[in-house]
Amino acid sequence: MGIFRTNKIVLGALSACALVGAALAQQTTAPPAQSTQPLKRDVLDLGALRTAPPQTTTIDFENVQGPQSGAGIELSKQYEQSHGVSFGRGASVHFCARVFDDVASVSQSLCPYPRAASGRRAGVHGVRAGGPAMVMDFSRLVSSVSMRINPTGGTLDEAFLVQLEGFDANGVRVVTDRVQFNWSQDAFSWPTVAGLETNAAPLSRVNVTLRRVAQNNQPVRFLIDDLTLQYAPENTLSPVAEAIAEQRGPQRPIGAVIVQSTQVSDAQSQLRLYSAATRKRVSVDWDAVDAALARQKDLGLAAASYRGQKFVNAAELPLLLPSKADAGSIVIVGNRDSYNATFKTGGLAYSLYGSRLLTVIDKNSGAPANNEAITFAGTEEALTASFSVYGVSYSLTRHCKDESVTADPACHDRDALGNVAAQMVVIVGEAGERRP
Q1: DSSP readout, 416-427?
Q2: Which CATH number applies to 56-231: 3.30.70, 2.60.40, 2.40.10, 2.60.120?
Q3: 388: helix, strand or coil
Q4: Residues 150-166: pLDDT tens digits?
Q5: Which of 86, 239, 276, 338 could make a disulfide contact with 77, Cβ separation 3.0–4.6 Å?
Q6: Quick one: three-class SS letters along 34-87?
């Protein structure tokens, strides 16, 4: 095959997609006579990106350090680096001890109990300083949160209601739980546990509120201890990546191979070599697309913001887009049968092309056979992974800096490209909603 000029996948290729056919289909095939550079070809393997076992950690507030605020220590970002959690306004850490214990300023402590749930310190949220809710933001997403919780005071058998609200990465509330309990002498043993767990979108924020039931649900100051976090799996595959890993795609016509090219002139030259070449508009597996959309909603996955909504709405095929990209970098162009998206992640340039047009060549026309369903093609300027999902052919390209693999050898890192593929999601525009 000739040099794979992936940096030239632009409007010209899109407007001529009827000639290009399956420009980025399941495999790359070209006459040996045109070969000017050997291709590195291998099967795309996303197995290493499968879900890792969940990890759990507990914060007991014993080792917190920070600027003094009254008798306690202001609590904000002390656990952000080690545990991925930061606390909003009104949070602090206090000693829990009897007045006669040898603790400095214990008479000013906001924890009136002889001890905390574990150790001698507990986290406190003051409603006057921070509003009704203790806010916890997670830079490392979590799937469950639990804690021991206590008001700073009450009367025998007084009723309290604790409410926890969990929000996904888009700020949408996805789970809520409430626990009502009676404050009594047993409160000194910290018996009340409250928590959230989600099998849907992982949580990026949790709000905790404690209210006094007998007084119009007035929010009150409260303490927490033994804050336990279960982190969401960092390597969860998106439905798109799962489909790629399973090598799902359209059935290849018996005895046929697919021509792949990103240059209109290359495609025309190749088609002239095979008189039996035919063009085919494939059927999209919309049932699989719907299942992927539903699964993405459960996981809280969505495409990063992009430009080119009119092209999205015109497309009669599902579009793949990254769920993570540099802000404002995703630009989409296309027509009803194909599209091209360019974007950056960490300053690195990528392009993503999809088409539902295939050019099929009869086996007797002399085209060489290739049975690989998912392939890499590496050149001096880029690394491209070609695959097919939902009946549509796609190609994801990582462009080398300065268009040179010599200057940017990391651009041929297959694992890195696989990680980008694992973060892709599927979207459908207005034309696609009609399931053409």
Answers
A1: HHHHHHHTEEEE
A2: 2.60.120
A3: strand
A4: 999 888 889 999 999 99
A5: 86
A6: HCCCCCECCCCCCHHHCCCCCCEEEECCCCCCCCEECCEEECCCCCHHHHCEEE
